[in-house]
Design brief:
- This protein is mostly beta strands.
- The protein is about 0% helix and about 40% strand.
- The chain contains one helix and 48 strands.
- The strands form twelve sheets. Strands 30, 33, 34, 35, 37, 38 and 41 form a seven-stranded antiparallel beta sheet that branches.
- A hairpin with a 5-residue loop joins strand 31 and strand 32.
- The chain starts with 13 loop residues before the first strand and ends with a strand.
Length: about 650
Amino acid sequence: LKNPNGPEMNGTGEYFLIENRQKVGYDQKIPGSGILIWRVDETQSSNVNRTRKLLDLVEADNQPSYGDSGDPFPGNSGNRIWNDSTTPNSKLYGGASSNMGLTEISSSSSQMTATVQAPQPAFVLNKSSLSFASSAVGADPANQTFSIQNNGADNSYLVWTATTSSSWLSISAVNGSLAKGSQIQITVSVKTSNLTVGIHQSSITISDPYASNPQGTVPVQITIEDLTPVVGSPSLPTDEGDFTNSTNLTFSWGLGSAEDPESGIAGYHLQVGTAVGGSSFFNGDVGNSALKTVSGAVDGETYYARTRAKNGAGLYGPFSFPSNGITVDLTPPARPSSILVKTHPDSSKNYPETKPQFKISGPNDLSGISGYYWRMDSSSETVPQVGDSFSNTGVIVATHSLSDDIWYFHAIAKDGAGNLGSQAARVRFMVKTRVDVASENKFETSDGAKVEIPAGTLDNPTQITIETKSSAPPSQNTQIKVSKALREITLADGTRNLKKEVTVHIPYTSDDIQGIDESKLRLFFYDENQNAWTLVSNSVVDTSNKTVSGRVNHFTLFGALEYSAAATLTSDVTVYPNPYQPSLAAHLANGIKFKGLPAYSAIKIYTLAGELVKQMKDEDGDGTVSWNAKNESGQDSASGIYLSLIEDGDKTKTLKLAIQR
């Protein structure tokens, strides 16, 4: 009812009070029991005005009295209904409908029930929705308002509450009451500090469970816009290399320095052209993928790519640096220009090398040559294929020994784009390592090493190997300087000693003999039993053809070494200490020394009676020999005078020495 300030004295409201009164306690003496309905008129201060009292009882039997059993509902009149149209009625003093009433009033008891009819509120909202907009880095948007109005029944009151569904949304009031026809304006504000770019939706719900429309909703939407472009650019796009044999070009890139804290990176824009920074081949967005394949590239053209990032608002950042460029080469390479056989330079000659070495060159090609497929066989028409051996340098050393035969080496080129040539280049070469026992054999390597083997040198046929060695055992002999001109000659069946002398020619280069007197080069072989280099006495040097030759009767490691001849028998050959006194510690420790001997000369020790005491030899050719003063049986030689006979070929020299014990 119309009572804006609630129950109060000297107010302006008019309303009804309803109570259940029973004859119990202090009410034992009341005339009747049931529901009492009191009319309150706050405009009156007392009941002096008998037609409009401050507090007046509505008698159920409509009979004025000073209190009887007909006053309560249903009372003795059995009145169970009270509203605007009953007698008595619920109209206001002015005759207006109060829209109040009770029906289905129960019989009198300590607990009574009735259906209450009250004036029902209803509300309307003057806005069906609210929409806000703001930028990601801007201030909060301006507040907006909507109003709530009670347009329900007369004398109705709307007791409303308001709730929001999001923390970023706030309202100026969350509850209140409205009389019929009254309204209130609600201010709505949003906070954008924690909102991401995009559309965010929420709502405000107004409710009164007693209203004819218990609930109403105002949808609220805010759009956060990104007005700033991407900062930074993606990484440099990469392609499949400098060259390709495909018309499909694939480019990939990374996020790089591109970033957008407001709306994030939503995709990329790619440009591909035949000029740096160009877009003649492709120009467009590629979605959020950092990989794109474009088709239709043209042979011979070079393509460059660059990319930029796009944010969630559709704004682009700067372009990346352009790619390095990829050139399309669809043409297979031609036949290789040349094949050099380092180990078999003359196709009409036999060579003993069983592991040939090759150097392939050319051809010229747009994308260059990345390597060669090759094969060795006895056919003159083979064309290598993918799956055959491959070399990316063109320098090839066979890893398996070849048998004696006529061989062909074939090669095709592969270019930098991956195209494979169909035309093979080839070279013919011959391998011969077999030693024929019944005829003279001559073997020569590509660098000039030669071995001449007379017929009858071996009992059985076998294969010969002439191998260049990169290092040699050192020499303890100061008369010998070891060079790098080294060859090891071996036979497959293990034979070392020969029935006849063979001639060995060892070539040398300037690099082989650095720091060596070329005129003093001689042929030496390495004696593994003595661990020493031994001179081939008949060897000679040919400085014009840069070879050292000599006749030997065995195969081993040979070298062209510098040899400085030791003193001859005409030089001063000395023996010391003389006399030799083994009682002296220094004499005993060092023995008797012969110094200044011709290299590899022999020494024989005799008594004055001509008896042979000891035989010795300058084994290492250094011109020095030591004797411990013991005879051939290992016994100490007696004190006395001895003769030492020194022999150098057909030359001899005799020295006297004394032993004092």
